[in-house]
Structure formats: structure tokens, C-alpha cells
Amino acid sequence: MSRVLIIEDEAALATALGMLVERMGHVAIKAPSAALGLAAFADEAPDLILLDIGLPDESGIEVLARIRSESPELPVLVITAHGSLQNAVEAKKRGATDYLVKPLDLAELESSIRALLESEVADAPGELPEVPDHAPVLIGSAPAMQPAFAAIAHACVSDAPVLITGPTGIGKSLTAQVIHRHSARHTGPFVTLSCASLPEALLEAELFGHERGAFTGAQATRTGHFERAAGGTLFLDEIAEIPPALQVKLLRAVEDKTFVRVGGREDRRVDLRIIAASNQDLDKAVREKRFREDLLFRLRVLEVPLPPLAERASDLPALSAYILANLHPERRLSISAEAMAALTRYPWPGNVRELRNVLEHAAAVCTGSVMLEIHLPEALRGDLSNRNELPTTGAAAKEVALDHALRAWLDQKLGDAPDYNTLQGELEGKLLRALLPRFEDKPTLLARELHMNRATLRRKLKDLDGD
After folding, report:
1. Higher pLDDT, 46 or 330
2. Which of 243, 271, 306 is the last residue of a domain?
3. Cβ neighbours, 10 Å, residue 113
4. CB 172 within 8 Å of CB 152
5. Are residues 414 and 346 part of one domain?
6. What is the mean pLDDT of the chain?
7. What angle is formed at CA 207 by the lines to CA 204 and CA 210, rounded to 5 degrees?
8. Quick one: 55 and 112 in the same domain?
């Protein structure tokens, strides 16, 4: 049972928040002002604080700063009726763990409270490679990665061409760097060219270089990537995007290590290793006459197939820890068990690149040392109103359903700017219409069973009949 301090001056809202907290099985401590809230913070040792910004004696932002100075790790959920950019930024700068705007969504609030109170740090992934030297490292030990590791090991002790295959964002460039770093050519250059980033004419010049005057704008001789990679490794990313005409010239360069600069006549030889990568099915591209079969044979002497991240979920803790250590080595961030569960549930269409982006987002919005599920992008958290943790059966589920229906009804009605009496009258009419059939459509029976004044009930029913 946790202790939740509610610093809120609006009595009705404070009461509602207290009821929600107690319904969840926790102790609610209410304070209607900043002074009383800070006193309760000192005396009650709460596990969570729900803090309103608009307090009568002092801004909740200032209260937050004082709480943070004494308890950097205590979760504080800031609530405001004025969801301005300034408030949000200032709240996060002062250390708010989460930030919600009135009117509050019941399911979202309950989910946030649960996450802040019940989160546990995910199990440590074990010893990770050292980060400081920024050497390329492949993290993971999932069964799906074992064939890739074996293929990489073969590639590291060979000088043959390598083809790395796998979906976008899986780490093909990193894999190529690892192979180069552990090969006999590790002292030579590692040169990368994305074959999809340039039109055909410029791509040829980038690959093989050009002589002065070879085309408009070629005011000087320029060496290409083949020559710049001499003694080392040339990594050709997105190799399937090379146009068919250029594939013929590339085949000769891969086979003989011989090429001619654009606009030149002299054969040039270069000693280098070729590593190519593709996220496409190159066998299919060969069948469709988009890629030369003989070029594919030459590039795929050794193949490293990288599985999608969805097939190696067991690597997520280690991958996440390593990425966070590189992103923010000074913060020593850890991930809650709930957040790790959300990462594991997600299908990761963008693979490791998407994982890095997600963790960078979470680190940016997390003010403490533990990243919670509420810090993850909404796409990973899903619809909070349909979370598995929320009640799906029984009275609690019906209450949640009623809350959602009431909010939807209010959203529709508030657009017409009604007064409170109008809303109350219409809602009471719906209630009476729903009640009467349950008491045989007899007002006297309804009034007796629900302890209503019969004259008042008849008047209300008469008003409904006149609508």
C-alpha cells in the first residue's frame, strides 16, 4: 500500500483524486495549498505526489523545485488546468515525472499513477562491452543472431567479398564496420557509399572518380571511393539501387580490382575489400532482371543475414542499456520493468534504428534515473484506455465504460456552450427514462424504492413528457 500526497486546492477534484487513489488500494493524503503540501511532504514521506500548478499561495512549479531539491527520485505527477507550452517545459525542467492537463482522463490518470507507483527496474542485462573507445560493437545473444555471428566470424578471417542482408535499420553498416575492424585490413580506411543517394552519372563518378573536363563542372581530377578505400574496405550500402548499366562496370571492378575513371582511358588497379549490403531480396531482383546474376555471385561470396529486431526480443535489455550508455553516459539511466515489457511487445518495424530513436525520446522526457512506460512514445504505450492492467470485467469495468460514455456525451454537448442547469436537466432526464422501466413504469414505485419525493418526481416526469 503506497502513500499518495494530493496537493490540490479544488476540493471536488481533490476528493475525486483521493477516491481514485483509495480505489486502487493506496492511502490518499490531501493538502489544499502549497504550504500544507510541503508540510505533508516532510511529515508523511509519500511514495507519489499529485501536484496542481495553480495553487492559492504559491505556484506548483516552485513547490516542485523544492520537492526535487530534497527528493530527486520521488515521482511527481504535475496537473494543470492551463496546458501551455511554458507550463509543460517549466514542469519538465523542474523535474516533473509526468504531466497531465485538466480535464483529466480517468484511464490515463489511473495508468500513470499505477506506472509511477508500481514500476520496478528491469533486470540488468549483464556485463556490456566498454563504451569509451566508441568501437563498433554488435550487442546481443539471441538465438536468431547466432547464424549472423557465425557468418561474421568467417568474414573477419577472410578477404572475400561479403553481402550483408536484412531489413532497414537493423545495423548493416555497423556490421560492416565490425568485420573491417576485426579483419587483416583494420589499419586501412573504411569508406562508405550509399548507392541510393546519387543519380547514375554522379554515382559512377563517386565510385570510380573522374578526370578533369569529364563532364560539366568537372574542373579538376578527383579520386573516387574505390581509390580512397585502397588498402582497406569499401562498403557499398543499398547495392540493389545501382543502375543496370553501372552494374557491368562494378562487376569488373569487383572481379579484377580494375576500373577506369569517368572521362579517362587508363586502367587503374586498387587493392581493397568489398562489403555490400541490401534490404531487398536480390534473388528476386535477379529474376526480375533488375540485378545482374553474375554480380550477385561475386558480391555474395560470403553472406551475413541479419534478423529483424522482432525476432531477437531477448536482446532488448542489453541493446537498450548499451544505447542509453552511449546516448547519456553521465546519467546512468535504467529502464523500468513495465517499460521493458512495452519495448518487448512492440514489433519494431524500424528495427534497431527505431529503438535508438525511441530511447532517445524517452531519455529526453525522463527527468529521473529510471525510464518509465509513460516516458515512451505513445505508439509503444498504445491506447491507455484499453490497457490490460485496467479492469476488463465486473463493476470496475462498467465504471470505466460509464466514464468513457459520459466524456463522449460531454464532448458533444460542450460544443454548443450550454449552461450547467441544461446539462444537469438533460442528464437527469436520461437517468429517469432508464430507471422507470426497471420499476414497471410506475412513478410511485420508483419514488418509494429510491426514497424520492413523489411530487418532485411527477413534476420532473411531466417536464420530460413536454420535451
Report:
1. 46
2. 306
3. 22
4. no
5. no
6. 83
7. 70
8. yes
